[in-house]
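no rush on this but wanted to send it before i forget. what follows is a protein written twice so to speak, once as letters and once as structure tokens for the fold. mainly i need to know what kind of three dimensional shape the backbone takes. thanks a lot i owe you, the record is right below.
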Amino acid sequence: MRIFILALDSADFKTINHIEGLSNLQTIKQEGVWAPMRSTIPPISGPAWVSMFSGVGPEVHGIYDFLIRKDEQFNFELIDSSHVKVKRVWEYLAENGLKCISVNTMVTYPVDRENNRGNIFITGGLTPPDADDYIWPEDVKREIEEKFGHYPVSARGGFALRKGDEARFIERIFANTRKRIEITKYLLERKEWDCCIHLIEGLDSFHHEFAPVLLEGDPENEIYKKYVEYWHLIDEYIGYLMGLDDVNLFIVSDHGFRACDKNVLVNNFLIRNGFLTFKRNLSTLVKRLIFNPYINLYTMYRFASKIFDVSRIKNKLLETQEGGDTVGKLFLSKHNLDLEGSTAYSEGTYGQIYLIDPGREQEVIDALGRMEHGGKRIVQNIYRGKEIYPHGVGFPPDIVFDTVEGYIPHQRSAG
């Protein structure tokens, strides 16, 4: 008996249940076993997929976010497979002489070749766009590229959507998914395998850019029509997988989605409440006069992304220390913060908070609980890191919090 794991990034029952004609998914629900699953805290893809395929939480495997803290000085870098502290399912299979095919699975680059003999990898999210070793072994890479041409490697940080360019953005999602499905079928039919994992990320791209439209579910809306069409593409693929001989099929997700049109700028919150302070030097003073919490790198990026494709610029800044240093020199940034004289600092894709003065933890938590916007409280759950990540390896965040519908925590500060 073989196993196929179809990993649907950001899949959510609240949309599936309202789309008609997904006959294969409905068959699985009726004849198999299904249930909502609890994600990681916070519910983001990096740690969630590592937990899914390792069977342990972030406090054990060491991935708490898309960024990982390297040292006591609050230096961070993007995660990759070398940061994962435990074995995942494909390594256990290889140890026992079984073969695994992994297509587009997140946090698999670079491939640990020594511990994955006999396995096949096409690496997924967070693979550097200029990487030449994203398919392993090399003979399989040559075979795939000769047969299918260029493989659509997932962009770090996602693809940017320009205003008015929705049709091209959606077509890119469809084209990438169709090609990856075609390649996966090719490998299934021509290679030996005991387990195959294929991660489809297109739903997450839809959800990030069009959540309000998708949740409204207007059947006359053109974007919603394409979303339904995309689900039917996945359902057709599920039908193919159900027809494979001697295969147990699992369909899993890492998290759901909701509409979030307001960012909670956590470092701004910390500054305003006296938990985070600026350095007192000329450079910082000038930047504070030029920029403010609402005219900054993040808002300028969001504005520019509506006009032209900034994903290449964004990825360049993400990938290099030089890029990060350039941003730090031009805008208000961590370089301008007096961390030694502060209580707390936020860095991470979900607004995770790190305490510099642990003795003031309760003060920070109390202030978070009082956070309001438009006269309503916007923080609904606050977690202490020592409780959700007991004895966590590396540098787990000290405070993580959830917000009410419509809001999402974000690390961005005045820069």
Notes: The mean pLDDT is 90. Residues 382 and 401 are 4 Å apart (CA to CA). The two ends are 54 Å apart (CA to CA).
